[in-house]
Amino acid sequence: MANLKKYKALTTSTDVISRCFTNENTDPYLISDNSLILSELAHIKDVLGVKFYGELKLQNDVGTLTVANTTFLNDYLKDTLAWFIRFEVINEIQMNSSSSGIITNMDEFSDIVSPNELDVYKQDTYRKAEIFLKDAIDFLNDTDQSGDYPTYENNKPCNTDVYKNHSILFSGNNVQSYNLNY
Question: Contacts by 2-5 with C-beta closer than 8 Å and gap 24+?
Answer without folding.
Answer: 2/54, 4/45, 4/50, 4/53, 4/54, 4/57, 5/37, 5/41
